[in-house]
Amino acid sequence: MTVTYTFDVFSSLDGFGAAGGDWTGYWGKQGPELLDRRLALYSEEQRMVFGANTFRGMTQMLASASEDSELHDPWVTRMRNLPATVVSTTLDGPVDWPDATVVSGDAVDVVARLKEESKVPLRSHGSLAMNRALMAAGLVDRVQVTLFPVITGQTGMDPVFQGAADFDLELLETRTLDGNIQELIYRPTLHA
């Protein structure tokens, strides 16, 4: 039996995973409900899966952030302390992450094996290109989009689904956090 793989991503309404300009983390929209929800999600036992670019970016951001920065929110600290697999053909160990293993190879092969062997669910936060490939291969069981109430048409970066295949989405869960942030959880199926 395989475990569940969740692709967890933050997005602006217009589909960007980040923004430049004067936007801050969470696009400045976070509140206590969002932060409590994130901590609850990451309090469950699970294994994180990252692509090399996201992993590099996260380790660099966390290393440069002050202790009271939002980058050290309790859920981020918890995520960093979960076991992690980093799929990369360019990274070598050791890495600055408490319990990370770098696995060389194609992400589809690595994650297919992890789904068979893992005793706990798998979750990936970000890692957009890798997760688009995993979706196309039918390995993503849940797409969890936290939709922030912003449009970043001029400053948006990292289009979440740019270049992805076509998918039908079955809505599994939805909730509103802090009055204006939407969490949407879908089961993706490749559109035939």
Question: Can you put this structure into words, describing what you see?
Answer:
This protein has one domain: Dihydrofolate Reductase, subunit A (3-Layer(aba) Sandwich), CATH 3.40.430. It is built from five helices and ten strands. A hairpin with a 3-residue loop joins strand 9 (167-177) and strand 10. The chain is an alpha/beta fold and 192 residues long. The strands form two sheets. An eight-stranded mixed sheet has the order 5-4-3-6-1-7-10-9. A two-stranded antiparallel ribbon has the order 2-8. Helix 1 (32-43) runs parallel beside helix 3 (74-80).
Entry keywords:
192 residues; alpha/beta; Dihydrofolate Reductase, subunit A; eight-stranded mixed β-sheet; two-stranded antiparallel sheet; 10 strands; 27% helix
